Amino acid sequence: MTTPLSLAIAGAAGRMGRQLIDSALTRGHAIVGATERADHPDAACDLGVLAGHAAIGRVAQTDVRAAAADAGVWIDFTTPDVTLSALKAFTGTSVKAVIIGTTGFTPDQAAEIEQHASTVAIVKAGNFSLGVAVLSALVRQAASALGEEWDIDIFEAHHRHKVDAPSGTALMLAAAAADGRGAPLSDVQHAPYDGPDAKRAPGQIGFASSRTGGIIGEHEVRIGSETELISLKHTALDRRVFAEGAIRAAEWAVAQPPGLYGIHDVLGM
Ligand code: NAD
After folding, report:
1. Using CB atoms within 10 A as the burial measure, which of 40, 60, 162, 181 is most buried?
2. Best of 103, 136, 266 to mutate for ligand 1, by most ligand atoms within 8 A of CB?
C-alpha cells in the first residue's frame, strides 16, 4: 500500500470524475476537494455518494483554489478550457502535482501546459490505460521497422457524448508511429479522409473516427503494404482502467520534481 494522498478531483460528477473518486477511495486515498459546474444536477451530492461509496462529508465547489486548498495532487478530466484555468489557480496552494486526462488541447494550449510544468509536476496522457501504453510501444516499434511503403491508419470509436476527434489516444498512437519513423506528427498527419481530393501520400498517418452509443474506447492501428496487413487493436472494457492509471500516476507524480511527464514515465517504459 502506498502512502495515502490528499486528492482533489475536477469535474467530480462527470463520467471520469465519479470513476476517479471510486478508484481513489478504493485505494485508500482521501478526497479533500473537488469542482463541478454549479448547474450540474448532481453538483450538491456528497462526493463519496457520487461514486457509489459512503458519504465523506464533502461536496464539489465551483472555486478551484477552495477545492485545491488541502490537496497534494489535482486530477483533471474535464475540458481544455477548464483544465487550463485550473492550472493558473494553483500558485501558492499545496498542489505539488497535476494529472491531466483531458483531451482535445490545441497546440497553443499544449504549449501553455508545458509552461506550467516549470512550477509543478504534470502527468498528461491521452490515455491512462496500461494496455494502451503497451500498444503505443508496439506501434512505435512496428513503424520504425517498416518503411514508408507501409501505410499507417488509426481507427477509433467512442461513445456518442465524446467532443473531440480524433481522440487523444488516436493522436498519442499516431505520435508514437511518427516517432518510430523519426518524424514529428505535425509533418505526417493526414486530415480525415473526406471529399474528392483525399488521396494519401507515402509516409502519412491517417485517421477515422466513429461516435456510436456507449462505446468506452476502441483503437486500432493498421499498418499495411500492398501485400500484408498488420492490425494492432485495444478495447477499453471499463472506464476503471483510465481512473486506476490516473491514480497510479498521482502516486508517482507526488514525488517528482516539476516537469511534464507522460504515462510511459509513470510506468518506467
Ligand atoms: P464528462 O462530460 O462526463 O465529464 C466532465 C465533467 O466536467 C462534467 O461533469 C462537467 O459538468 C464538468 N465541468 C464542466 N465545466 C466545469 C467547470 N468549469 N468546473 C468543474 N467541472 C466542470 O466527460 P468524461 O467522459 O468524464 O471525459 C472528460 C475528459 O476526459 C474528456 O476530455 C475525455 O476525452 C477525457 N478522457 C480521457 C481519458 C484518459 O485516459 N486520458 C479517458 C477517458 C476520458
Report:
1. 60
2. 103
36 lines ligand 1 (CB under 6 A): yes
15 contacts 239 by C-beta, under 8 angstroms: yes
Residue 1's pLDDT is 60
Q: Is the peptide bond before 184 cis (omega within 30 degrees of 0)?
A: no
Question: Which cell goes with 269?
Answer: 517504459
Assess whether the C-beta atom of 104 lies below 6 angstroms from ligand 1: yes
105 lines ligand 1 (CB under 6 A): no
pLDDT tens digit sequence for 116-131: 999 999 999 999 999 9
DSSP output for 153-187: EEEEEE-TT--SSS-HHHHHHHHHHHHHTTS-HHH
- Nearest protein CA to atom 4 of ligand 1, as residue: 14
CA–CA dist 169, 243 (Å, integer): 15
